Amino acid sequence: MPPADKEKKKTSGKEALTSFQTPKGMRDILPDEWPLFDKVVGAAKSIGEFYNFSRIDTPIMEQADLFARGVGLGTDIVEKEMYVFSTKGGDRLALRPEYTAPVMRSYIQHGMSHLPQPRRLWYTGPVFRHENPQSMRYRQFTQFGLEVLGSADPVFDAEVIIGFYRLLDELKVKGVSIEVNSIGCKTCRPAYRKKLTEYYRKQDVCEDCRVRLETNPLRLLDCKNPKCQPLKEGAPSILDNLCQNCRQHFRQVLEYLDEARVPYVLNPRLVRGLDYYSRTVFETFVEGEDAALASGGRYDYLAEMIGGRPTPAVGGAAGIERIMEVLRNKGIVPAGKIKGKVYLIHVGEVSKKKSLSLVEEFRRAGIPLVNELSKESLSSQMELAAKNNAPLTLIFGQKESYEDSIIIRDMESGVQEVVPLSKVIEEVKKRLK
Ligand SMILES: [Zn+2]
Ligand SMILES: [Zn+2]
After folding, report:
1. In this predicted structure, what is the pLDDT of residue 134?
2. Which partner from 15, 91, 326, 384 sits 20 to 30 angstroms from 144, CA to CA?
3. Domains plus CATH for the chain?
């Protein structure tokens, strides 16, 4: 038997036990990544709270029909990317591929229209799309979103766009540009759709677009196929075909963005794939990055599409992992030295035991403290303290533990001082200032 086979045979049983992996396209968020994750989510949260949005969350599963009706049957999300399954009770559920339809479902279900309008809601949580996993396009990823429900005022379209712009600004992302467009309303869109269809019928479009011509002609403008790129140039522009009300609405949105000094460019070919959008749509890009970091738009018809009363609304969402990737690519995140905590070193059994109550005293005083009670040697604990970037180290030696005192060592200067145990919190606070 060749050695390789022998090796294989010997370990095959073991391999079977250790070969579990994350599902394809999904990933663990390991401890190293959490500081950055928390930083992005923290910034998002502070933006939501500053602009007076209240937090909402919905279950990760919904009736699959909510998305079929709300997001639309002709869309990639619903046709190809949704995780749909039947429960033992016979319900057809879907892992949420986006938050907007669930948030509107919740608004209707809980009668939020009876509260003062509009309702401003923010959320963050996982969404699921069964896409081909490319770089950073995970099948489970995290979204942050802002939704304003119950008002048709264009100021809220601007407020949502400004919210995402400020989020990226807060995270020090430079070179942000926002593409905006209006895709019209029930009054003006049918005529435009007809013009667009007439134009594209005369062109040699790709296979996908031939289907789009029948199901969702607006999405012809969204086609990424090189064959269809040059055709976009000659296509009729939606901005030339808006009705009076849509034109007025869009003009006001742009005026508010000007006033807020948010840089934007008009992109008459921006349509967004989902059925529920009307009027304003936007996508936020960063120089040198292909995919949008945040996107959204107005969705005045969604409430009716899912069985509610007419409820004008606008919102958008950003991908947390995408933003993290941009921060890493641009080197905006310093290769993370986390601010060190006070490090407690013990020597001997008495000191180890007394350390337990000392840790509690620090917790009550609100001073973050680290210790490693399983380590016994002074030098290995000193090493850990240095590695942890601790500004101060407390050395609770054998002698000290009997005398109820403790050594405070300033890690930068190396200066040590013995203080009574009863005074240690006070003394540490003084030095941390
Ligand atoms: Zn219109
Ligand atoms: Zn095409």
Report:
1. 63
2. 91
3. 31-188+242-329 (3.30.930.10), 342-428 (3.40.50.800)
